[in-house]
Specification:
By secondary structure, this protein is mostly helical. It has two domains: 53 residues, no CATH class; 46 residues, no CATH class. 51% of the residues lie in helices and 4% in strands. The protein contains six helices and two strands; from the N terminus they run H-H-E-E-H-H-H-H. A two-stranded antiparallel sheet has the order 1-2. The longest helix is centred in the N-terminal third of the chain and has 24 residues. It is elongated and about 90 Å long.
Amino acid sequence: HKPDNPSWMYRIASFTVAQYWRTYYKLTNGLDCGSCSKAQRRKCKEDDLYSECPRAIKIESLSKPIVDADGNTTELGELIADDKAIDLDAWLDDNTFRLGFPQRLLDIAEKIDNGEALNKNDQKYLERYRHKAQISLF
C-alpha cells in the first residue's frame, strides 16, 4: 500500500481549516458570504469589506451595560422579557390565586372562614388535598 501524496494532504488540511473559519464566522456573525449575492461578494472582495459585512448580524453579550434615559445602568440580560416569569402583582390579587384551586376546596375554605362546621366528606376532601400538596422530604 502506497502512502498518500503529501500535496493532497496539504490540500485537504487547507480545506479543513477554511471550513473551520467559515463555520466560526457564521456562528459569531449569523451569516456567511454564501448568503450574499454574487455582486455583493464581488464588492466585498474588491473593497475588502469582510470584517464590516453589511448583512452580518452582530452578537451582543447579555452582560453588556445599557444606560436608560434616566442614566441608570442595567445589564442587557435583565431587560429581556421572560414569558415564564411570575407576575407578582397578579399573585397579590386573591382572584388569580383562587384560579388554581378546585371549586370544592374554595367552598370548604369559605366555610372555615365563616366559622361553619365541616361535614365528614369535606373533612376527608381537605385531608386528601393537604396530603397531596404536602412536600415530600424523601
